[in-house]
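Support request, please re-run this one:
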Amino acid sequence: MIHAYKFVLRPTVRQAQALNEMLRDHCSLYNGALQERRDAWRHTSKTGIKYGDQSAQLKEIRAFDPERQGRWSFSSQQATLRRLDKAFQAFFRRVKAGLTPGYPRFKGGGHFDTVVFPKDGDGCRWDSTPHDARTRVRLQGVGHIRVHQHRPVQGRVRTISIKREGKRWYVILACADVPAELLPPTGAVVGIDMGTVHFFTTSDGGHEPNPKFLDAAAEELAEAQRHLAAFPRRTRQRTKKHRAAARKVAKLHAKIRRQRLDFHHKAARALIRDHDTIAHERLNTAGMTRAPAPKPDPDNDGAFLPNGAAAKAGLNRSILDAGWGQFLGILANKAESAGRLVIPVDARNTSRTCPLSAGGCGHVARGNRVTQAKFECLSCGFTGNADVVGASNVLHRAGLALCDAA
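Re-run finished. Output below.
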């Protein structure tokens, strides 16, 4: 198995300065390579420049600028160029698919926050002993940085990434050959229905409360954003007070993100611990949170009819605050490590179908769901909680999928 570990770095003042310089120089390399590709496409040829061409120039670049480029790891600079190449590959893939392309853009200093070392021992070295408080990571051009290792690392370290989040620094280890930690079988199966009122509802009738971290911090976040927006445009990014206000907003968002991630890990762990098989809806959160298309007014040129965008925006905010995609990804990863089975099923009409598994008739109609919480079948009169009905239908579909696979 492949597993990632994320630990907090404790750099000294000089090491933190060197880490910032490393990010700055890699960002400069990324932007310079992007500019070269743009110039080649516009003025030289329509074939463009590939990763191999730019990687071959690294030796000359490092010799020309030894103070800014020559001091860092050669392999980490290659990883930065590969990052740009992947952005172009994704751009051309979207063009061929007819999607919104999104041409790769130049990175500002605040948006380039990660440097990747593709191989342990090449420009970096993970120096760790189990249960040793003196864990270090050695980086070329920076030195040995102290690491707050809160749990042992298993497997073989393949890549090491250094990431900045606000004023904090993290090391991320991608490890291969991590042994699975199998849990004893329980014999229990469950289906879950994701929601915004309840984070999820199980087919057993249980409800996991939705903490709504964004709503809880909405007042404090709005005040910080108003303070940031109050600075005149001509003074932005120039004054110490403006930078402090921007850090305040970023700090609040980072706190919300950490709270949400911690909740997702704990909720997923509880499901994995108590059930052998877990079924959930296959959700397209990107499509669910897409803004509604505008409705032109046929009687007035340039005018538009109401399209429910304001109400949809509130629902989109609730869905994104819940973070269904992140939770389901964590659930799948934990299930693989514990030897559990997770089955995604088609989400269509799960809350509008009278559940056969609960004694219903299987009738499908939009009117079956009377309110957000109430289900009442128009055909047989079966009643129940709409979320529990949805979870029961998810579990039933997972059973059918297993029978078809067998």
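The chain has two domains: 3-176, 189-347. The chain has a mean pLDDT of 91.
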